[in-house]
Amino acid sequence: xxxxxxxxxxxxxxxxxxxxxxxxxxxxxxxxxxxxxxxxxxxxxxxxxxxxxxxxxxxxxxxxxxxxxxxxxxxxxxxxxxxxxxxxxxxxxxxxxxxxxxxxxxxxxxxxxxxxxxxxxxxxxxxxxxxxxxxxxxxxxxxxxxxxxxxxxxxxxxxxxxxxxxxxxxxxxxxxxxxxxxxxxxxxxxxxxxxxxxxxxxxxxxxxxxx
Length: 211
Ligand SMILES: C[S@@+](CC[C@H](N)C(=O)[O-])C[C@H]1O[C@@H](n2cnc3c(N)ncnc32)[C@H](O)[C@@H]1O
Hints:
Blueprint: H1 7-15, H2 22-34, H3 43-56, E1 61-65, H4 71-79, E2 85-90, H5 93-103, E3 112-116, H6 119-124, E4 130-135, H7 142-149, E5 153-162, H8 176-189, E6 194-199, E7 205-210
Parallel strand pairs: 1-2, 1-4, 2-3, 4-5
Antiparallel strand pairs: 5-7, 6-7
Helix pairs in contact: 2-5, 3-4
The structure holds S-adenosylmethionine.
S-adenosylmethionine (SAM) binds at residues 40-42, 66, 68-69, 71-72, 89-92, 95, 118-119, 136-138.
């Protein structure tokens, strides 16, 4: 499937976004060189969006589901005030090793706590309240993650969900992951606990505010 955003438009958007800092560029390079699916990383434009949003809402308590090599976590940590805490979790220890190697090179890395293990187990350990939650892990569990985290988000807090357009496969779902995203999108767009918008940013990002 093609990218939602044509590559030349994505490139134009990258060039007209504040430049990526050298540590994030190094992390993106290491991810390209050392992992099999580097495109799982949010990248410069979406990462910048995460940092700006985190900064704009002054998020001090952030939860991320799906760390991978730590790019999105570092972006959000950079947007958080001193003393902020970001909990991020994943099942992939080898990707987490790359994340840690880079986080420790930034003073924002101190804000990040990594938890290894299936996210649904990890979530049970934390009550919140969170100012911001970013969901970016296995698609089949998206609705489970949503239902597990929403009660832990403060009123007025945000949930961001990545890949909700799934390279356009939401229009013609075949694989189980396609159908899971479609079910998720239908369920949350009718969830009266939130107000939300689906953004056509990169692979689609749903942005929800808890009422
Ligand atoms: C799209 S990547 C995350 C990308 C990351 N947010 C970034 O921008 O660099 C999805 C991650 O979810 C992780 N994952 C898959 N199933 C999981 C589960 N049950 N619990 C926690 N993490 C899981 C994968 O190992 C993978 O690293």
